Amino acid sequence: MISDTGTGIFAHTAQRLASFGFSSLRIDFRGVGESGGRFQDTTYNRQIEDCIAAMDFVSDLPSGRPSAIFLLGWSQGGLVAAVAAGRTNRPAAVALWAPVGEPKVSFPAFIGRDVYERALRSGAPTEFQMPWGASLTLGPAFFADVENLDPLDEIAPYQGPVFIAEGSLDVAIPVGTASKFAKAHNGANQIWVAPMDHIFNTSKNVETLEKLITATAMFFSGRPNCGGSG
């Protein structure tokens, strides 16, 4: 929740994007939130499939414009958006907010190398604790995706423009990930860097998030270079 508003980051972002003229669809991946299935069965590839299915859904709406679909992904959702874009080359543009670029580096750092390696060897679901105290259980297929999926390689075929936001205070994503995505992507891109943590300083206020949303909307509108740096 955002301290100033009591709303979630995605709900707030959707409201602000609407003010710029962008309708939005927010989805729960299978096994998450109100979607059916078990969370322990989730994998990166299943989430990517869900993202592509969401693009299909929007394209089929009476008001849908297949040529004007934009993807926005935050953190692990950035990984999903990057790979979905690379596998389909469909989005008009993509925004990656603090994206996971090297999952087999960042995820073991979250849960501990010993836990990660044990999960890779195990044929059964593994329970572990995240740094903020949440206890999760994920199956072996998830850890196989963490080990084998390379979003930096996957985004290369995408020909549209990519906006990549990175926080200099973010301890969840290694510094330089934005540059790696920009180098891996063969199309136009913009790197936006700000002194923000992984949740865009929203535990204090929405100032940084507002700047990020505005910069993203301007990029989607074809008017980059708004706020931040890069």
Automatic annotation (TrEMBL):
InterPro entries: AB_hydrolase_Est10, AB_hydrolase_fold, Hydrolase_4, Pept_S9_AS. The lineage of its organism: Bacteria, Pseudomonadati, Pseudomonadota, Alphaproteobacteria, Hyphomicrobiales. PROSITE patterns: PRO_ENDOPEP_SER. Keywords: Hydrolase. Residues 8-107 form the Serine aminopeptidase S33 domain. GO terms for biological process: proteolysis. GO terms for molecular function: carboxylic ester hydrolase activity; serine-type endopeptidase activity. This is Serine aminopeptidase S33 domain-containing protein. It comes from the Bacteria.
